[in-house]
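The passage that follows is intended for readers who have already worked through the single-chain material. We present the inputs for a multi-component assembly, then the predicted structure in tokenized form, and finally a short commentary. You are encouraged to pause after the input and sketch how you expect the pieces to fit together before reading on.
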Amino acid sequence: MQIKWAALGQTAGVSLAITLAVVVVFALGNLALSRREAAAEAGNANSAKGTAALVAAGVCFAACAGVVLYGISLIAGK
Amino acid sequence: MEHITFLVAVVIITALAFDFTNGFHDTANAMATSIATGALKPKVAVAIAAVLNFAGAFLSVKVATTISGGIVNEKTGLQPSIIFAALVGAILWNLLTWLKGLPSSSSHALYGGLIGATVVGVGIHGVNFTTVVSKILIPAVASPIVAGVASWGATKLAYLITRNGNQKTTTKGFKRGQMFSSSLISLAHGTNDAQKTMGIITLALVSAGALHKGAQPPTWVIVSAGAAIALGTYMGGWRIIRSMGSGLADIKPPQGFASETAAATVILTSSHMGYGLSTTQVCSGGIMGAGLGGPAGKLRWSLVRRMVYTWGLTLPAAATVAGIAAFVADKGDWGVVVVGAALVIGSGAMWMLSRRQPVHADNVNDVTPVEVPAAQTAPGAPTTATATVAA
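Having made your guess, compare it with the prediction:
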């Protein structure tokens, strides 16, 4: 009986890395969004800080959306 | 041909019935944590899951060409009576675990049923035990652990990163994220599991001579398999949703997002690598990891233990029932009728039993008074009902 431990380990490692990356990026986006709201409440949503936070959040969420689209393409392409 | 036609009709109906139980058994996988955290309203959640399961059925038909993934030797001729017996074993086990509110793998139930029915109907040589070990048993043990570890780490990081943010905003953000992560699980589930039913029906049609060998599933097969799993999903296996969403741990939005992301990732990567994994076990593992990684860091270990026992039992139990069914069904048409009657009576009995302690959309998030402090129990929760579901 031959079991491909390397393939198993690879699958596990890739899963772990992707999960952590997605959740970290999403959490950062979330944090940025909350910074932006803090700026808005202080009355300067369009300050450099507020805008930077909004852009950062947008980049983070776009990255997550990209991973989701890749995931869907994996499902469909099989 | 008379015999074949009758049997093939029975197999198709039973396959759709299995697909239906598969749907409502597995709604919890994608939606339990989203319902528990309030990211989605219970009815909305099952509706989304149903639509995505249906859509998923149309995404791909590649898996449908081999239903067993090489577990049983399909070349020796997988007789309709064996498929029928396998389905009976799988359905009965699915219903029993649903009654107990335990998430168990529908795929394992089906594989177990196929193994049991093949051993009785064809002989021990009909089963490729090497494939069983490398493609089912090892992933079955490894995948919940990987999902659990990933989810644990992700939960820790999610809390760490957002600790200085505005809790209200970040919570809302994680709830939004949960909508996407749980939807992705639903879609992947529809693609994987609806295809198994398509494969079974197609195989039955091939054996009856209605389709040539190696044919793609006809459109009506794809539509009916997708519809059966979607309908089952929409019924919502509320008992299992309660166990997974509120029974294992108290899940908050960051934990829900982390566990769903981990589950979706593990499901997609391993199915990409060709492992026949159990969505149920992966999702349960993810929830366990998120429970441990959260601020409370607590799991209800008694339920964890019972879940793990159930996972271990699924394959042999479904195999045993299917083996008996195969023995009887092999006797001819009357045998098939007897097994069919036993299936209907058994399913009916379990449904009647479930009525004694109903769990539905309105009380799905009630937690069990036995295992949690009284303060957290929703007022008016029927004590005996919730206790027994968790018991």
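Commentary: Chain B has one domain: 2-390. Chain B is about 75% helix and 0% strand. How closely did your sketch match?
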